Structure formats: structure tokens, C-alpha cells
Fold:
Amino acid sequence: MTYVGRFAPSPSGRLHFGSLVCALGSYLRAKSLGGRILLRIEDTDTSRCHPDNTLEIIDELSRLGFVYDGKVRIQTEHLEEYYEQGLKLYESGYAYYCSCTRDSLKRTPCQCVTRPPEFNRIPCALRLRLNERMPAFFYDVLRGYVACQSPLNAPTLIRKDGLVSYNLACVADDLRQGVNEVVRGADLMEVTTTQQYLSFALGAGYVMSYLHLPLVMADDKHKLSKQNHAVPVLDEGNCQEVLLAALRFLGQSTCGISVHDTPRMILNKALSSFDVRRIPLESGGDPLR
Ligand SMILES: [Zn+2]
Structure:
């Protein structure tokens, strides 16, 4: 089976060092196994994402030497597909409609599973129905078996206002695109069993492989993210430097690689010495700060 991986950033800003580490890790892993690497823009949360950032990210990745297979998939261009998948999950009993509001939940617990609301007459969210088939752990390429707590509340798949959740869009796309290994930041380990279950509910015929990369931290407690004002990683002409810093962050050898190489040459040299076992498990600080 051909390896199919993906890099799937959310365009809530330009690339920062943390997103670069994921771009590099997913790229080297896929290419070192002779596989395909896809680029997908996860922009269903339109309150945080902007199309200008999408163009910017695509341009930045290309300046950094990354060449992706196939066409870039932009999730907001496929919303109908996610609504269709949501309906299938409802019809097969894996999801239910919930009319509760934040206020009503403070007064009474949700009973929409046993007493379904009239979803075609009142605004409802679609939620994943939790049950005992929810896995308790998943297997990670670097970390082995990782235990995961079941979510306390049924995860929302589609919000009342129609917004498609990250979990639904991500899992539906991984299946549609034939992705068989997900390489991403360790902050997403906590949603992995939910996604595995969702993938099973959507009819996956295989078990996804996972590889969670170490997080780039902004300080002792918080990962680097757009929410805590991560600075864009690229400025004029520093592609080589940031690629070298990201390689070191991933524990890879930079022997024989110089800042005078083109970004493409750096990626090719990194590929020839890439060793997945050298990737550290522990998170680290942003070396560019
Ligand atoms: Zn409810």
C-alpha cells in the first residue's frame, strides 16, 4: 500500500515555527517512505481563518521548497460533502441532533439522545453519540500505545449555525483522500481516539497510523500558536535558516547542509539522512525567538 500523508494547516495566520515543524516532519516522513504528501487547508472555522492567509501559506510552503502531490484541498470549497457525511452519521445512529443551549444545559442535562428534538423545526447541533466502542488508546509510531480519556461531552460535529467541526471535516477528508498516516503536533493526541471512532463510524476500511511530533512551546505552559502571537517564521530570504532550525528541532542531522543551499537542496539532503527514530518526544522552545 502506498503511503499517503498530509499537511493540514488552519489559515488563521501565516506559518509560524510550530507549523513549519509539522510541515517538515510530515513531508520528510512521507517522502522517506516513497509515499505521497498532500496539502489540505482546514478553514471551516471562518471566524478564525481568512482566504488571504491561505494564499500566503501556499506561497510560503513553495518558497520553502515543499512540493505537494495532487491539488490543494480547501475545506470551505467542500462544505456540502461534510453535511452529507453528517446526515449519514445521523441515519446510521452514530450521531444525534441536540437543541440544547448553553443556558438550558446549566438548568437540565441534555436528553436529546433519548428524546430527539424536531431537528427540522428548531436549530440543532449534530453531535457524535458516545458509546462503549470508543477506543481507550491508539498506537503512535514514536510513542507506542497512548491511553486517551473519552470526551466528557459528546463532540459537536456540526454546530447549530452550520459550522462544520474540525473533527468531522478532518476525518472525512482523511478517508476521502486515502490518507493512511497522520503526522501532526502532539497537542492533537487528545482527540485521536474520538477521530478513530468517527473514522470507523464513517465506514473506514483500515486503521489510521499516527505519528505525533513534539510541540514548539511559546513558554512553559503554552504551545506556540497564533492565539499567543506566534510570529510568522518567514521574512525576506531566511528560508534556509528556518529549515535548518526546524531540522534540528526534529533531531535530524544537518551535516553537509549549508545556508547557501537552495531550500529544495536542503530538503533533498535532509531526506537522504532522515531518521524517524531521532525525533524527540519532549516539546521544546522556539529556537528563533
Ligand atoms: Zn441536547
The CA atoms of residues 17 and 102 lie 36 Å apart.
